[in-house]
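Internal tracking record. Fields below are filled automatically when a chain is submitted to the structure queue. Please do not edit lines marked as system-generated. If the sequence contains nonstandard residues, flag them in the REMARKS field before resubmitting.
Queue: standard
Priority: normal
Entity type: single polypeptide chain
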Amino acid sequence: MKRNTLSTFSLRNVPVVTIRVGETSTAFHLHMDLLCDTSPFFKAAFTKDFKESSEKAMSLPEDDVDTFERFACWLYNQDIKLSGYDTNEGADERYMQLAMLYTLADKLVVTGLKNEAIKNLIETRSKAGHPPQQPIVTHGYSNSRENSSLRKFIVACHVWHIGYKWYDYDGTPGKLLEIPEFAVDLVIAMAKRVSGTVKSSPLLGDVSAYYEDVEEEVDVSKV
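SYSTEM-GENERATED OUTPUT FOLLOWS
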């Protein structure tokens, strides 16, 4: 799916839809054509025979308001507002913002934003020198699909950019038991490193290797 940009997209006389997000039902008023052109999830909701189509409104009570606002800003200007990474705390916050943005984009079937989130995650690891911590691992594995780029990023960080000392910490076995899918992926990736099947960190190569093909969007009939 090729996404229109504001340079080619007219906002004149375009209907507006209301998206209410989170437990607070915070309202976002967005141009329907731009939203549907970007997201097959919204296209299915607002152009098919659902109540959202007639009411021009939708509720997403389980989603995070700040994350949806980042999506809305990206929708209009292709820019993502994030925390800095000058400190470990700032890097942790930035990792979480990007992980949550990735999983929201996955839900909304917005591959371009998923790729942008991955690019920023890899850049954050490179510039901050601080790998994603357990909360990001938990969120990523609880809210993304098997073999997702987010999971691959998390595993690569732990295989190639965390010292082996991490595996000796008393708390590490418990952390791995909390997320068995992560533990399995980690073992497989570590075996490939030790055997020499993979000789260097994939995070140091071409970032686009982590991108998903925009043309291979999920069928909207299955959304």
